[in-house]
Amino acid sequence: MNAPAAQSVSPAPQQGGRPSPPALRFDNVTLGYDRHPAVHHLHLDIAPGSLTAIVGPNGAGKSTLLKAAAGLIRPLDGVIQRGVPARRIAYLPQAAALDNSFPLTVYDLVAMGLWERCGLFGRIGQRHAPRIAEALRAVGLTGLERRPIGALSGGQLQRALFARLLLQDAALILLDEPFNALDAATVADLTALIHRWRDEGRTVLAALHDLELVRASFPQTLLLARELIACGPTDVVLTDANLARARRMSEAPDPHAAPCVRAA
Ligand SMILES: Nc1ncnc2c1ncn2[C@@H]1O[C@H](COP(=O)(O)OP(=O)(O)OP(=O)(O)O)[C@@H](O)[C@H]1O
């Protein structure tokens, strides 16, 4: 039997008459932990320059997919192809996964976005100060440069992390629930930054729970429930039928929950 064709979240843009290669390709990819699959048999292309929401019930595999895209976990089966080098991929984990007790100021945290370009042992000095100041201004944190990150509110910390992303100059940006527990003003400001990245031709994938926000601000959607339910234009994907199917899939016992033999 032939493998199913990869589904695309948006048509591939043309490059001199030829379609450009996907920013990410999942070729029959199964992901999981300790050989127990969490997401099965993904066939998926993410077009360069696309802005895609990943939605699905709790435990659907959204974070797992993002971690795999970032190269933090390896597929149990199948192949992930990345159209951009690892150094141009930025990954922002869920806020709960971040340790903000580290003794770091807002300025230092944001300046870390320049490490890739300066090299780990390169000096981030006065000549970089205007760019760091500009990133802080863009997220509305001017004046908080010297504050320890442990003394920031959740929304301020997320703004600082977005400022760090601004300096990273990533071609592929992976955001895991970036708006969790943030107020409407912060969500609106950070959504505007995400749109700016899209306008600059960067590829953005974000795991989100707020379907209203997804409908308003994310042109493409990938609906997961331990497997791919649908992907494509948001209004085509987020139908009552697809959402009901995703709920059923997440409530049903997982027939594939045994160790993945093929991955052994
Ligand atoms: N480190 C881990 N070790 C073992 N199992 C894990 C690990 N992380 C996630 N899982 C399991 O993988 C499955 C998918 O989890 P994942 O966190 O990717 O889902 P999610 O869609 O991001 O969920 P949520 O919306 O609750 O954040 C779940 O069954 C989860 O329990």
Automatic annotation (TrEMBL):
CDD domains named among the record's database cross-references: ABC_Metallic_Cations
Ranges for region Disordered: 1-24
Protein's UniProt keywords contain ATP-binding: yes
Pfam families: ABC_tran (PF00005)
Composition skew (Low complexity), residue ranges: 1-15
Family note: Belongs to the ABC transporter superfamily.
Protein name: Zinc/manganese transport system ATP-binding protein
Protein source organism: Camelimonas lactis
